[in-house]
Amino acid sequence: MAWSRSRWTPPLYSLLLSVVILGPLLAPGYLLLRDAVSTPRSYFTDSAWGIADAAARAVPQDAAIAALSTVFDGGLVVKTILLLALWLAGWGAAVMARTVLPTAPMPALLVASTVAVWNPYVAERLLQGHWSLLVGYAALPWTVVASLAVRRGRSWWALAVCLAAAGLTPTGALLAATIALVVLAAPGGARRGLRVVGLLVLAAVASAPWLVATVVSGSGVEQADPAGWAAFAARAEPGLGTIGSVAGLGGIWNSDAVPGSRTSIFAFAGTAVLLTVVALGVRPLFRRRRNPVIVGLGVLALVAVAAPALAATGPGLELARALGETVPGAGLLRDSQKWVALAMPFYALAAAAGASSRPNRVQPAALSAVQCTRLRSAGLIVALLIALPDLVWGVGNSMRPVAYPASWQAVASELDGSEGDVAVLPAGMFRRFAYSGTAPVLDPAPRLLPLDVLQTGELLVAGGTVRGEGTRATEVQNALLAGESAETLAASGVGWVLVENTTPGELGDSERTLKELDTVYSDDQLTLYRVPNPVLVESRPATAVILAHLAWALLLLGGLAVGLLGRFRVRRTDQT
What we know:
The chain has 25 helices and ten strands.
């Protein structure tokens, strides 16, 4: 009855935390920060389907946004999904804690929500622009709950929805599938083998868009650049070392994508607070019962912390490079710190158990057990919030919506209905616009324009270069920088060259090439040139990829429909 009366407390509390974090993004405008690029409208290009030269890293994300942005503003879609992700992460942690620890009081559930939402992992991934990865992160506690339902012989629909939602990105799909495998394969319950087989089938459908796109394009099966393993390895934060940073859910590879509080010795204090909150609940969590699911999640948390830390050592990097040279698609693993998300469900459960446990010392006579639990939980929540003070309001106001110049819409209108791929200048994939702030941002052209924009995939990381998969894009870029003829571009399938005038970058001798082209549009922001008589490059077959996307969407929407219909029937039955 108490839970029924308080059922709205965890979702409302989690929503409050999410709004406090994402507050600046509630204003009009678009998210444009490092890897995050939202635009008014996206298009069904080869890149969106994942069958261009570059690896299918944003599949089915890009196609889903392209579909939704035909009806809704694309910037609003991305901001709504991000807000839902943080909200559901906190709410899901509370539901998970309530499911695994049925005697946990309400204040303890709110501690679990705080751990799930207010931590360095969320802060750093927001600053890096990994909004879609946070969708997979948010699905993890719900995946635990759904997998527990399957263990008890209930419907699979909730697990299908969790896997499909997490499958918005390849990493999210693997994160959710790993969590589900740990829960379903744990000893206990009937038909364990059948549970695992069912999971593998659902996971395959949830991952079908990027798996099929990788096979069709062939880009993801190429060897990853060996330099990428060191560049994307987990990083030590002040006073913590790599293992301490990762254990505190921090340590992202990009030292610029961290809150200010994680760049000083305060990082040590903040990590100590988080790990203390978790440690308080480890013993009570295992003492209550020998739950194989809790044990499995605990072991997974240890692996999720230890593996990225070990991968950042000399021997670990050598092993990773060898893996990248022999295993197709191993480049998906090179950002090793992102896998520490697998520790979050156990951390949240331990925090709830710690807040629920009764201290050994005698409680004050004036306070009841319930009051002591409330005070202890409130103290833990306040400590967690203070441990990462600059997560508030857009991670220290670093996440602010931007407004695109009208030039982009004018260029998109010129290209609409045309043929030929678009090459861009200056060289490289990252830009610094006056309207986007001081942080480098991914070039928005591939998502703003209705034609395929050639992308090399080459990244500048920690002063070095990580080679990308876009071989044709690299050849075109080199031809432009060398000032080669317009015929060379046309032979490569390039029908347009877009010069982004206000961002720094290498132009080389491209002026020689541009003089041979017709200027179609020009202002202070953008200049668009037409390449005469381009030789159109035959597109890769997209039918199988589109069908894979439809299967993923059917898994997501069908699972939601079955779940809602089931709840409606239950309510009708209760009323009669």
